[in-house]
Write a structure and sequence with these properties.
- By secondary structure, the protein is an alpha/beta fold.
- Helices cover 34% and strands 17% of the residues.
- The chain contains nine helices and eight strands.
- An eight-stranded parallel sheet has the order 1-8-7-6-5-4-3-2, sandwiched between helices.
- The structure holds D-xylitol-5-phosphate (DX5) and zinc ion (ZN).
- D-xylitol-5-phosphate (DX5) is lined by residues 8, 10-11, 33, 35, 66, 139, 141-142, 144-146, 176-179, 196-200.
Length: 245
């Protein structure tokens, strides 16, 4: 078993996104992390559903769509129609998180819940039955290439313990922001199942090599973990055009 690496397209050349996506798939990558930013929740603007819809025609990668937008309910159906497989919504952007998560499921997609560095996972207690994945930010969202906030290691471990104690051993933890070959093993030892990487991944133009480097640097830490139920579940997710998993 290997960790899942989800390269963030935010660090790719935006003039060649389609080519990058198909090259990643050929290189053996399974997930693609798509950072949608609205210039309101975060101080940056990227792309929306039309770009994702174009990328969908280029690749069968699992589209892990990270919505850093205020009031995401307004756009869920658009992202589903564009070909997203999972919509990850921020706790800090939702007035009715319970309703939003169910709306994502009603569209046939996986629902991820993202938490900023300052947001505690205990706020999600009553949402857990409606969540497929927890995303813990390792930086304040908005930009690639930021320094990892070191207290996130403790947060990942504490979140894993919290989920396990409540009977959610099967819920995968994704860590986004500041991941690199220098800290990937430590993130996985703490409990990360899926690593998002933007700048660290794309600085290597050889995607096979970049992917393998993350997988091999984390293999020992993964072997030493007691349980990998969350990772096993996430490994089973595939892009399904008809939305039936
Ligand atoms: C940050 C984004 C991340 C970002 C990660 O707001 O959500 O996905 O692209 O980039 P790195 O790996 O460079 O921190
Ligand atoms: Zn992201």
């Amino acid at each position: 078993m290997n960790i899942i690496l989800s390269p963030s397209l935010l660090s790719a050349d935006f003039a060649s996104l389609g080519h990058v996506a198909s090259s990643l798939e050929k290189a053996g990558v399974a997930w693609l992390h798509l950072d949608v930013m609205d210039g309101a929740f975060v101080p940056n603007i990227t792309f929306g559903a039309p770009v994702i819809s174009c990328l969908r025609k280029q690749t069968g990668l699992f589209f892990d769509v990270h919505l850093m937008i205020e009031a995401p309910d307004r756009y869920l159906a658009d992202f589903a129609a564009a070909g997203a497989d999972m919509l990850v919504v921020h706790m800090e952007t939702m007035r009715h998180a319970h309703k939003t998560l169910q709306a994502i499921h009603d569209l046939g997609l996986k629902a991820g819940l993202a938490l900023n560095p300052g947001t505690d996972f205990s706020h999600c207690r009553w949402l857990l039955p409606y969540v497929d994945l927890m995303l813990l930010m390792g930086v304040n969202p908005g930009f690639s290439g930021q320094k990892f906030i070191s207290q996130t290691y403790v947060k990942i471990g504490a979140c894993r313990k919290y989920l396990d104690e409540l009977g959610y051993e099967h819920l995968p933890i994704q860590v986004d922001g500041g991941a690199s070959l220098a800290n990937a093993a430590e993130l996985v030892a703490a409990g990360a199942d899926i690593l998002v990487s933007g700048s660290a991944f794309f600085k290597n133009p050889d995607y096979v090599d970049a992917h393998n480097a993350f997988i091999s640097s984390t293999s020992e830490a993964l072997d030493n973990r007691k349980s990998c139920q969350g990772l096993e579940r996430a490994q089973s997710w595939r892009h399904c055009p008809d939305g039936s998993y």
